[in-house]
Amino acid sequence: MTAEAGHPANGLDEVVHQRVRLGILAIVHEARRVEFGYLRAQLDLTAGNLSKHLSVLEEAGLIEIEKGYEGKRGRTWITLTPAGGTALADEITRLKQLIARVEPGTS
Amino acid sequence: MTAEAGHPANGLDEVVHQRVRLGILAIVHEARRVEFGYLRAQLDLTAGNLSKHLSVLEEAGLIEIEKGYEGKRGRTWITLTPAGGTALADEITRLKQLIARVEPGTS
After folding, report:
1. pLDDT tens digits for range A13-64
2. How far apart are the CA of B16 and the nearest CA of chain A, in angstroms?
3. CA-CA distance, B47 to B41, in Å (whole number)?
4. Would the CB atoms of A9 and B1 count as touching at under 8 Å?
5. CB-side neighbour CA atoms (13 Å) of A24
6. By the 8 A CB rule, do B42 and A6 touch?
7. I need a labelling partner for B90 at 20 to 30 A (CA). Which of B9, B12, B23, B76 fits?
8. How far apart are CA B62 and CA B75, in angstroms?
């Protein structure tokens, strides 16, 4: 095997693979549209930490962040973009390849 | 679902999950004992970047690093510790849980 072919880990994108961001993308994929507070509770994060990771994903075009109101309370909603759906699917594909190398015969 | 149960992403350990370190652990698991240069080629890393990640894994007790000689050439060999094997297996378990949430019905 050449260095160029390399290991499935080489194909993982750090923007998507990072633990918190992978959690965000997986939850938003599952729920379609999620509120900031829900994500924060699900992932057990501080608001600051969640905001930081949401910004990385938004700048990469993987999510959309929408601010609005529910009654008088400000709310932030997060949805997955088509590029975000593709990026999550690519990550899952590579993770499966990696798992298959770690557990030969079980895939 | 409570925040405490939360998402499978919460259970991922950043020491193991980080892209390069996950690659290192997977390759060392597969090959049992690997040489530094082989890892570097497989993961397409600079020596400095690989060394940094190996130190993190060694400090966490997940790998053993052994320096020796092959003829007159210095060589560095890496093996997985039992704790490293367990940590990799835990990571794979949680990744499978996460994949099952993203792809319901395919698991």
Report:
1. 999 999 999 999 999 999 989 999 999 999 999 999 999 999 999 999 999 9
2. 10
3. 10
4. no
5. 33
6. yes
7. B76
8. 20
* Contact flag A7-B14 (C-beta cutoff 8 Å): no
ipTM: 0.88
DSSP secondary structure string, B34-88? Answer: EEHHHHHHHHT--HHHHHHHHHHHHHTTSEEEEEEEETTEEEEEEEE-HHHHHHH
- A26 CA: distance to closest CA in chain B (Å): 6
| Per-residue pLDDT tens listing for chain B (107 residues) | 443 467 999 999 999 999 999 999 999 999 989 999 999 999 999 999 999 999 999 999 999 999 999 889 989 999 999 999 999 999 999 999 999 999 876 54
Residue A100 contacts B where some CB pair is shorter than 8 Å: no
| Domains of chain B from N-terminus onward | 13-91 (1.10.10.10)
Nearest partner of A84 among A9, A27, A10, judged by Cα: A27
- Find the length of chain B: 107
Q: Are A106 and A32 in contact (CB under 8 A)?
A: no
- What residues have CB less than 8 Å from A22, skipping those under 6 apart? A16, A91, B9, B12, B98
